[in-house]
Specification:
By secondary structure, the protein is an alpha+beta fold. It is built from two helices and four strands; from the N terminus they run E-H-E-E-H-E.
Amino acid sequence: MPPVRKVARVSEECVSCGNCAKVCPLGAISIYLGLFAVVDGDKCVGCGKCERTCPAGVISMTNREAA
């Protein structure tokens, strides 16, 4: 069985501070219209840096859905 890969998920309580986008090493997160963070699941490698830096605690790492 292959290892479970993680991907970042942002809840709707995002305060759009942009910290997650700044720390993402692959540019997988952007702030959409200045309102909330959006994760590009194709770029996200599940490193967790965004989750650790989020001051609102609204980012979590979840299992990546099987393709």
